[in-house]
Amino acid sequence: MTSPRLKLGRYSVGTGDRFAHQAKAQLQACLRALEEGVEVVPVWNKSNREHTIIGSEPFSTRQAADAAVKTLDWKLPYYCDADHITIQTVDRFFAPCDFFTIDVADFIGQPAEAGQIESFVARHPELLGTIELAGADESFEFTREILTATAQKFLAAVKKAGEVYRKVVSAKGEGNFIAEVSMDETDRAQSPVELLIILAAIADEGIPVQTIAPKFSGRFNKGVDYVGNVAQFEREMALDVAAIAYAVKQHGLPADLKLSVHSGSDKFSIYSAIHATMQRFGCGVHLKTAGTTWLEELIGLAEAGGEGLALAKEIYAEALAHREELCAPYATVIDIDPAKLPSAEQVRGWSSQQYTSALRHVEGDPAYNDSVRQLLHVGFKIAAKMGSRYISLLEANEPVIAKNVTENLFDRHIAPVFLGRNT
């Protein structure tokens, strides 16, 4: 008899924690949601890229999560995500992680073998003709040419996902982890037609995927608001949800398969659309927030004044001096206007309020500076190089930092997305 597989739950939030010090504060946000009658499953995520930049190990994320769960007596599920792993980077995550985000965006557009494409097309006659997506009030026409062209673009990527999934299974066993397939870090949004074909291919690979992260239209830059047409995003999300429901019924994918919205932190303008879509279809979502916890640490240090403020200013100065190096790994998910970046000398003269007002994401505040926020978002390497000097100040100012972390995650993210509360 096989053991029951792990299940993510309807609502879940990915919480990034660069320095593994805010897990308790993050979990407090989920507890606040639970007090209001909504279960939001925490998933602590940290990618191989972030571990490499900081010099940390995946076990640090697991240890921080376990400690927070024990301290706060959290009785519900929680997970640790091997975020954006590939076949080359997955091994170090086997032991500490039970959620694997399989990133195959780099393989989109790489052609599969002709025989594999022909076999896929022959295996899926149900994907020919008119397909109506229930609840979306739209239908789509599939031809053999569309099916073949889409398979040419995506089949190799999905087969790579299958390869990674089976490698994780060999180490963890079936049902002992959550599988997500990520295709968001690419140049063009996937259409619902493409998503239907991708999901059929995922089913063929035998991946019991519980979340899928497509690319949506618009810009999902790190740590700042969505840039794009909100109505178009809402339409795309509704069509994707309807496509998932169709694929679950047609291909036997897990009934709890849901969308994952990556770089989902601070996308305030689309949160009401996400909530409305979930209400409309009775579905869930995985909202993956990234490094905004690290920014709340900087805000807390600046609020604390004294050494904390001085260190926050120093981090900005170093980030500004090494802007190109820090931005390079994140070039596709940031848009920094150098003209909007104040000089290090200017920032050295700032008060606590000036620093926090520039960094804290409050739309409408004339002091808020999205370029400063994006630069510092990718500037965590500077703090990592400071080692114990940075960590000791985090620990010394834990109360003010924790307050910022909890309020940011609950008030600005969980409440609007999962409770339908305006930011």
Describe the structure.
This protein has 423 residues and is of the alpha/beta class. The chain folds into 2 domains: 11-292, TIM Barrel; 294-409, no CATH class. It is built from 17 helices and 10 strands. It has helices at 23-35, 48-54, 58-72, 114-123, 144-172, 192-204, 230-251, 268-281, 292-304, 306-321, 323-327, 344-348, 352-359, 370-377, 380-386, 388-396, 398-418, and strands at 11-16, 41-47, 79-85, 99-103, 129-133, 138-142, 178-182, 211-213, 258-261, 285-288. The strands form 2 sheets. Strands 1-2-3-4-7-8-9-10 form an 8-stranded parallel barrel, surrounded by 7 helices. It is globular, with a radius of gyration of 22 Å. The mean pLDDT is 95.
What's this, in brief?
This protein has helices spanning about 25-35, 50-55, 60-70, 115-125, 145-170, 190-205, 230-250, 270-280, 290-305, 305-320, 325, 345-350, 350-360, 370-375, 380-385, 390-395, 400-420, and strands at about 10-15, 40-45, 80-85, 100-105, 130-135, 140, 180, 210-215, 260, 285-290. By secondary structure, it is an alpha/beta fold. It folds into two domains: about 10-290, TIM Barrel (Alpha-Beta Barrel); about 295-410, no CATH class.
Describe this protein with a few key phrases:
2 domains, 423 residues, two-stranded antiparallel ribbon, alpha/beta, eight-stranded parallel barrel, 17 helices, TIM Barrel, 12% strand
Please give the number of β-strands.
10
Strand numbers in spatial order across the main sheet = 1-2-3-4-7-8-9-10
Shape: globular
Specify the biggest β-sheet: 8 strands, parallel, barrel
Structural class of the secondary elements? Answer: alpha/beta
Could you please say which CATH topology of the largest domain applies here?
TIM Barrel
CATH architecture of the largest domain, by name, is Alpha-Beta Barrel
Ranges where pLDDT stays below 50 over 5 or more residues in a row are none
Distance between the termini: 47 Å
Q: What's the helix count? A: 17
Name the helix and strand elements from N-terminus to C-terminus, one letter apiece.
EHEHHEEHEEHEHEHEHEHHHHHHHHH
Which percent range describes the beta-strand content? 5-15%
DSSP helix fraction: 40-55%
Mean pLDDT: 95
CATH class of the largest domain: Alpha Beta
Number of domains: 2
Radius of gyration in whole Å, from Cα?
22 Å
